[in-house]
Design goal:
six-stranded parallel sheet; two-stranded parallel sheet; binds NADPH dihydro-nicotinamide-adenine-dinucleotide phosphate
Length: about 300
């Protein structure tokens, strides 16, 4: 039996872990979000981990608003860096392991083959910079049995994400411009949650390992949007545009593919193809919709009923 603390439990990944947790009844879970445990509160973090005798911390808490982070750099830095340091220090003191989640946005997007976990990092925006600072803090403190899992383009039926944005805009508009020259891999938070719960609760490594977990395959945001509209049965026409035609406060990496070889070798896992997982999520959204909107006939109709 492991005593597990999940931070940021109301976010996409935290919610998926929460939903799956009943299938892992041999463990005890503490689900906390900022109201129950603010990870920026050093004393509260130390006290929680010490008094609850936490064995494993799954840090799903983060500042994830990529564009807003350009203006709120200090807050992003506090949550994505300083708080990770507090969690790592508390983990080290209490012999707990820390499973920390990071991002493809630590890379600069200029590569042309998938980034290995030890490839040179060089974030192009504030969010990526603060996430990299968090990784570095964790590595230097090095609590035993801890890992960093970098993932990308996460979506879920919970929280806010690209899939739910596309479903909403797809209902509201006849056409939509979406960037075709940024490529990466969408990741269904439920798949990542399952991977963590199945594989990461009993790690024994002495030195922090960094792994990459995304769904299989590759696409651009444009391809992703086309597939979302198609699977949801929406008529909205998706038009491909270059990054230059969609100015945003934060730059995004053009190329975000990450090499999963070491994760697959070490954990012997099969990872779902992105389109199969997207279908599962859209089906789930449809199911949630039907229970919320009695006259709903399509998945797309329903997204606002589950939007935060
Ligand atoms: N979303 C994505 O596309 C990707 C995410 N990641 C990483 O995966 C991890 C999980 O992401 P995801 O589930 O999407 O994130 P979400 O933004 O959905 O969830 C993060 C949660 O953390 C909470 N939180 C914020 N500040 C604090 C705090 N001080 N103390 C405790 N909780 C806090 C948020 O609350 P509130 O909403 O109130 O701020 C929210 O509930 C993060 O580390 C993220 O960087 C990596 C790649 C892609
Ligand atoms: C809404 C919209 C977005 N886009 C583009 C902008 C951007 O390049 C891309 C994705 O936009 P979003 O703002 O939804 O996604 P973004 O917030 O950049 O997503 C990132 O979030 C963080 C937390 C991560 O860690 C990353 O892995 C990644 O998932 O799509 C369009 O081209 N058209 C549109 O209508």
């Amino acid at each position: 039996m492991k005593n597990i603390l999940v931070t940021g439990a109301k976010g996409q990944l935290g919610s998926e872990i929460q939903e799956l947790s009943s299938q892992y009844a041999d463990h005890y879970f503490h689900f906390t979000d900022v109201a129950e445990l603010d990870i920026c509160d050093k004393e509260a973090v130390h006290q929680f981990i010490r008094t609850k005798k936490v064995d494993v911390i799954i840090n799903c808490a983060a500042y994830t608003a990529v564009d807003k982070a350009e203006a709120e750099a200090e807050l992003a830095e506090k949550i994505n860096h300083t708080a990770v340091k507090y969690l790592a220090e508390a983990a080290k003191e209490n012999n707990s392991s820390l499973i920390h989640i990071s991002t493809d946005y630590v890379f600069n997007g200029k590569a042309f083959q998938p980034y290995s976990p030890d490839y040179l990092t060089d974030p192009v925006n504030r969010y990526g910079k603060t996430k990299l600072q968090g990784e570095e803090a964790l590595k230097s403190i090095n609590p035993a049995g801890s890992i960093i899992i970098r993932t990308s383009w996460v979506y879920s039926s919970y929280g806010n994400n690209f899939v739910k944005t596309m479903l909403r805009l797809g209902e509201e508009r006849e056409s939509l411009n979406v960037i075709y020259d940024q490529v990466g891999v969408p990741t269904y938070a439920q798949d990542l949650a399952r991977f963590i719960l199945d594989n990461c609760l009993k790690l024994k490594n002495e030195k922090i390992e960094t792994y990459h977990y995304t769904n299989e395959g590759v696409c651009s945001w444009y391809d992703f949007a086309i597939e979302i509209m198609d699977m949801a049965g929406l008529d909205c026409k998706v038009m491909p545009i270059p990054t230059t035609a969609y100015p945003t406060p934060a730059k995004r990496p053009y190329y975000s593919l990450m090499d999963k070889t070491t994760l697959k070798d070490d954990f012997r896992v099969e990872i779902p193809y992105w389109k199969d997982s997207l279908k599962n999520c859209i089906t789930q959204l449809g199911g949630q919709a039907e229970s919320n909107v009695s006259s709903s006939t399509s998945v797309a109709l329903s997204t606002s009923s589950v939007e935060n």
